[in-house]
Write a structure and sequence with these properties.
Blueprint (H helix, E strand, L loop, with lengths): L7 E2 L13 H8 L1 H20 L6 H7 L7 H14 L8 H21 L4 H33 L5 H21 L6 H26 L4 E2 L10 H11 L4 H20 L3 H9 L3 H29 L1 H19 L5 H29 L5 H28 L5 H18 L3 H17 L2
Parallel strand pairs: 1-2
Length: 436
């Protein structure tokens, strides 16, 4: 049986047959997502509540609690394209993780220190550090995600993404559920240290134990500038019509998620007058529901296809968002979030495997970057708009925005034709092979 640790893949190959990924391989790839899951949950659920002690503006709280920011428009396509083209002894994705995550963790450790600065510069310093460690996190995360199709054959991708998501959800639930101190600020400060440390350790474990396929470092093609490659990729969207539709779906999904996640705990606390801990439990219920359902959804993805499972997941989130417009009690919110967690499990297991079906393998890193671009443009705009409405007292607006976005995403998703995607990917690969 071929060994994934020694397999060499030609840069010019148009068809790559990967050996099955072992359970150990799936575990070591996914272990980094335990730390990254903590980061996402910390950003979305803890940072807005933490900053609420220093600032009452919901727009600022939402922007700081968003996992994507506007700088991603420029940075992420460059990172994605570079991770497709770079050739090192440790692989083409891991260098970005190795460079960015240690710095990201260091800045997270410094953020609680900034909370002790004079009041005149305190909020600015905290916001600046959060901005920087979010940028660094995304520099590492997109290439890390793009590593999955490099090491995993198509028939396994739903199951591998499901296990990957499960570890991420465990990390998310843990950092929300665990309280280290009765003082809310001291508790959040401790979580900065925990998230930064765990993220660093799990990243180093993935780097050590996952062997990326050795892609030939010898190319018969001249190296072009990354800017030229991005322009070529943008032109490629004329060929990859189904991929273009996919990016629209991911963008619309990002609008919906961006409307809710930075404000979820604030919404729960405002509507029910509950404690910070009870608001955090609402987020945890969403994560627990996802954890319970994600492995079955991954198996379902491998069985019936990524597009059908993704459609199911987005539809369930649309239904849950609509119901949330009308609920008021803490228990009813918990019940609806459990339903939303099932939908989140479905989209988590199916969304990225779908992308790997509709874009060429040689551009998967770049298109992962494009996906982040869509989120980097739309999420901050959504946060600003929804934050303004919340400042005016309309806290339920987050769910109207989410429901509308998900319904439009379903209409676009329905128009994607996988049989056409196969032809478009073949044509696009020929364009890449013939490019000078």
């Amino acid at each position: 049986m071929p060994n994934p640790e020694t397999e060499i893949i030609s840069q010019e190959s148009t068809a790559v047959t990967l050996p099955p990924l072992s359970k150990a391989g799936a575990f070591w790839y996914s272990i980094a997502n335990l730390g990254y899951g903590m980061f996402f949950s910390f950003n979305n659920a803890v940072i807005p509540l933490y900053l609420h002690y220093f600032c009452k503006n919901n727009i600022i709280l939402g922007l700081m609690g968003s996992s994507h920011s506007i700088e991603g428009i420029v940075i992420q396509p460059i990172v994605g394209s570079w991770s497709d083209k770079i050739r090192t002894k440790i692989g083409r994705r891991k260098p970005f993780m190795l460079a960015a995550i240690p710095l990201c963790s260091l800045l997270m450790l410094l953020t609680p220190v900034a909370a002790n600065l004079p009041a005149s510069i305190r909020l600015g310093a905290i916001a600046f550090l959060i901005f920087l460690f979010t940028v660094l996190f995304n520099v590492a995360f997109d290439p890390y995600q793009a590593m999955m199709p490099d090491i995993t054959p198509q028939p396994q991708r739903g199951s591998v993404m499901a296990f990957w998501t499960l570890l991420g959800v465990i990390g998310q639930a843990f950092i929300v559920m665990v309280n280290f101190n009765k003082d809310e600020i001291a508790n959040a400060n401790m979580k900065f240290y925990i998230v930064g440390g765990v993220m660093l350790v799990t990243t180093l474990l993935t780097i050590k134990f996952v062997r990326e396929p050795l892609i030939s470092m010898v190319s018969t093609k001249p190296h072009s500038k990354i800017s030229a490659e991005i322009r070529m990729a943008l032109k490629g969207l004329r060929t990859l019509t189904q991929a273009k539709k996919g990016l629209i779906v991911y963008g619309l999904y990002g609008i919906g998620v961006g409307a809710i996640m930075p404000f979820l705990t604030l919404f729960v606390k405002h509507i029910t007058n509950c404690t910070d801990g009870q608001a955090g439990q609402a987020f945890m219920i969403l994560m627990i529901s996802t954890a319970i359902c994600v492995i079955p959804m991954g198996k379902l993805t491998d069985k019936i296809g990524s597009m059908r499972v993704l459609f199911l997941g987005i539809a369930m989130i649309a239904i849950a968002s609509t119901i949330c417009v009308f609920v008021s009690s803490l228990n009813s919110i918990y019940a609806v979030l459990f339903l939303a967690g099932i939908g989140n499990a479905a989209q988590s297991a199916a969304a990225y495997p779908l992308m790997t079906e509709i874009v060429p393998r040689d551009e998967i890193g770049l298109y992962t970057g494009f996906q982040t671009v869509a989120l980097s443009v739309l999420q901050p705009l959504t946060v600003v708009g929804v934050g303004h409405l919340m400042n005016l007292g309309n806290y339920r607006s987050v769910f109207w925005v989410c429901a509308a976005s998900m319904i439009i995403a379903l209409l676009v998703l329905k128009s994607i034709k996988l049989n056409l995607a196969v032809h478009e990917v073949t044509v696009r690969q020929l364009e890449l092979d013939n490019a000078v």
